[in-house]
Amino acid sequence: MADIPRARPGNEEVILATTTSTQDSGLLDVLVPVFERQTGYRVKPIAVGTGQSLALGARGEADVVLVHAPEAEVAWMAEGNGTSRLLVMHNDYVVVGPAEDPARTKGEHAAPAAFARIAQTGAPFVSRGDNSGTHAAELAIWKAGAVEVKGRPWYQESGQGMGATLNIANEKRAYTLTDRSTYLARRATLQLDVLTEGSKELLNVYHVMPVNPQKFTHVNAQGGQAFAAFMVSREAQETIATFGIDRYGQPLFFADAGKPEPAA
Fold first, then answer.
1. Hey, what's the signal peptide range on this chain (predicted)?
2. Which residues contact 99 (CB under 8 A, 6 or more apart)?
3. How would you classify the pairing of strands 86-97 and 176-179?
4. Which candidate in 117, 130, 186, 232 could, as Cys together with 257 as Cys, close a disulfide (CB 3.0–4.6 Å)?
């Protein structure tokens, strides 16, 4: 941690805009206290999904963003909103649904084909519908399967985060797309099974991006850069690599700092 600057008096708060999955999985509860203890910063996390997180950063209302929508991130950087885009980790999305699987998606390794079966049978599907990274990934899968969901009676948008969306799908005995980490963290309270996994469309990659102080002079640039540096540090990466193993028997994320971008 020697290369990560400590907070200066009066400049301790760091506003982190991030996805609901980093919070719902419990990862932030582990990483943030370590960062705060070792640097003197205080992190104020705003877990609202990738779309809203990028919007907060683009308005200078956050100091750093931690998100998972690569195409949107590249566009955000091209607009001059960030100083760097650092690869942190990845996991994957899975299609979950009731064990009876009315659309017969179990074992279908291609996510677009699984989605097409859901549409063909009219089985209920709950979307986050919140412009998050998960929502963007879901819409891309519908598009790949040539399915138009707008106005379909079986398609519902929750407008909420991943944890709440999983609860709604559970109540309605519906399908949904979720990041594996949030699903595993909540699996004990759900009657939803993993039915489709391993498809190339289901890769879920996270990057951290400090907000550009040349565009937003009021942001805590040092704090944002310190948090980004911490997320790719050896200590944070080791924590990410082992997070979840003790409780779920498998890691919830795979540490990627310093590696090539994961390929779908």
1. none
2. 191, 193
3. antiparallel
4. 232
